[in-house]
Design a protein that fits this description.
The chain is an alpha/beta fold and about 575 residues long. Helix content is about 30%, strand content about 15%. It contains 16 helices and 17 strands.
């Protein structure tokens, strides 16, 4: 078989040996060798292939698959702008510690800079966003030394992606320059083991001491253990948790109040109304322990910046840097067992109970009608079945869940909080759904949906998820009403440059892409993701003009309940 075909088949074979189960592919000419190799692996059941027409969507699909499965997932594209379109997903994977394998086909080095079509300098394309970058040599032959090096490079790439190297998990980039011929020269219809199957796959027979089907190089994951934080376990302590960080162990809290973001593994153990209570003077902690990377609440940022509060951080065991935006962290280590004063614990629990009661009353009696996303978030989270998965869009949806939903066990919550953009949210959810054993729900806004329209496209015959998408269609960018630019002084320019209404028929758009879609009747049961439901979209019509005033009124309502 020719060199390009041999190298591509060895690459795919080694990925499968190392435990890769899914791969994402975009069509192209220069990436024909890995395309044929992946199709071959899919036919033989060693790798499940997902084909997409848009590289940006494909990158986030692979990210979602990796996020939910915990395994690295390759995304394979052709050269030029196709490779550049993966950059948003690479950045999100980098900042959220997800093992995305970026495989970009390329022209041979001698053609770079000659004016050859679809040719750019792809070395270092993603800069410092990747944990490792390499280039395989242009395949010429299939000698044993060449094949050994191909397999060894895959092992090194996977080690960097999974954190088995020196750093934290994250994306990696392998550039694959190919020369003609780009298509197989053996019989594609031949069965495995058939004499017509062409030459044996190079390196398939491992040398003595290596078991068949095993990875070429066995690389163990390092065991990292941080020493316990040296803090006063009996002090008035607040624990704040964001995405990432250590695995949840509520036994360490000893009743310590916990404010956790929905995408944190600690969320099920958190106070419901914690974000509403952060500015209460009587609840001011003496020290705060930060788990992972919180990004949602300005109240958290203000607390961590306060000179009177001692701040400590536990970034978790995977080598991720600790979060310290304000430069106030005194020490980094593992969360120790805490035993705060009983009256401190009781004060937070009583405040949480009173705040939750006033919040639910406001959500149900119409006081919060100007912020419909809050009630929607509460009801949607409650409607999901145990064993389900919920993906949250950036901007208001993830904040609405944090502010209004009741934290609960039995539900896996995910969100792209690495860079917190709206890129690729639909594709991320599709990927996460395809890797999750139960049904998946997605809550997002209309602009976030439109930003990833091609994420709705799942071709005939492609693996298709059980995914229920709930889109809050308030005709534009509702999040900006809650920021400084949403104030009355800027009303003259707000709607065009921040509100950005589009007028798109989202139900019609989804139906055109093959989804069952319709407007919400108001029954929370319609928002629940169910096994076997397929691809479904529910549009929730809303207005956003009252968002700013309603949030201010809710703050007054909660404060009154506490006072």
């Amino acid at each position: 078989m020719n060199g390009s075909t041999a190298q591509a088949r060895v690459l795919v074979d080694e990925l499968a040996r190392a435990g890769v189960t899914d791969a994402v592919l975009c069509p192209g000419s220069r990436n024909a060798p890995p395309a044929f190799a992946l199709a071959r692996a899919d036919e033989r059941g060693t790798v499940r292939l997902h084909v997409r027409i848009d590289e940006r969507a494909a990158g986030f699909l692979a990210l979602g698959l990796a996020l939910a499965s915990g395994r690295p997932v390759p995304v394979v594209v052709t050269s030029g702008t196709a490779a550049a379109n993966l950059h948003p997903a690479v950045l999100e994977a980098s900042h959220s510690g997800v093992g995305l394998l970026v495989l970009t086909a390329d022209r041979p080095p001698e053609l770079v800079g000659t004016g050859a079509s679809q040719t750019i300098d792809q070395s270092g394309l993603y800069g410092g966003a990747v944990r490792w970058a390499g280039t395989l040599p242009v395949p010429v032959g299939t000698t044993e030394p060449e094949v050994r090096r191909w397999r060894a490079v895959v092992a090194r790439m996977l080690a960097a992606a999974t954190g088995a190297g020196a750093g934290a998990p994250g994306p990696v980039h392998l550039d694959l320059p190919y020369t003609d011929p780009l298509v197989p020269d053996d019989d594609p219809a031949a069965a495995p083991g058939d004499p017509l199957d062409g030459a044996p796959l190079p390196g398939a027979d491992l040398p003595a001491g290596r078991s068949g089907g095993a990875a070429w190089t066995a690389v163990p994951r390092p065991v990292r253990a941080l020493p316990p934080l040296e803090l006063d376990p009996g002090a008035r302590t607040l624990v704040v948790a964001g995405a990432g960080g250590p695995a949840a162990d509520p036994s360490l809290l000893g009743g310590t109040p916990l404010v956790a973001e929905p995408s944190s593994c600690w969320w099920a153990h958190a106070l419901r109304t914690g974000p509403w209570l952060l500015d209460r003077p009587e609840l001011r902690p003496a020290q705060v322990v930060v788990l992972g990377r919180p990004t949602l609440h300005r109240g958290v940022a203000a607390l961590l910046a306060a000179p009177s509060v001692a701040v400590f951080a536990d970034p978790g065991p995977d080598g991720t840097p600790w979060t310290d935006v304000a430069g106030t962290v005194r020490a980094v280590g593992a969360l120790p067992a805490l035993s705060p004063p009983e009256d401190w614990v009781r004060s937070w629990r009583d405040a949480d109970r009173a705040a939750a009661k006033s919040l639910d009353t406001a959500l149900d009696d119409g006081t919060a009608a100007g912020a419909p996303g809050l009630r929607l978030a509460r009801d949607l989270v409650a409607a999901q079945p145990d064993g389900g998965q919920l993906v949250l869009g950036s901007s208001n949806p993830v904040r609405d869940v944090a502010l209004a939903a009741v934290p609960r066990p039995g539900l896996t919550v995910r969100a792209n909080r690495g860079v917190a953009g709206i890129d690729g949210t639909v594709s991320t959810a599709v990927g996460a759904a395809l890797a999750h054993p139960g049904p998946t729900a997605l809550l997002l806004g209309d602009l976030t949906l439109l930003h990833d329209t091609t994420g709705l496209v799942v071709g005939p015959g492609e693996p298709s998820p059980d995914l229920t998408v709930t889109v809050l269609d308030d005709g534009g960018g509702g999040i900006f009403h809650l920021l400084e630019q949403g104030g009355p002084a800027h009303a003259h320019a707000f709607e065009r440059v921040f509100g950005t209404p589009t007028g798109v028929d989202l139900v019609g758009l989804a139906r055109a892409a093959g989804w069952r879609a319709g407007d919400w009747s108001g029954d929370p049961a319609e928002l629940a993701a169910r096994p076997g439901s397929g691809r479904r979209l529910v549009r929730v019509a809303a207005r956003r003009e009252g968002l700013r005033d309603t949030h201010a009124e809710l703050r007054r309502v909660v404060a009154a309940a506490l006072d």
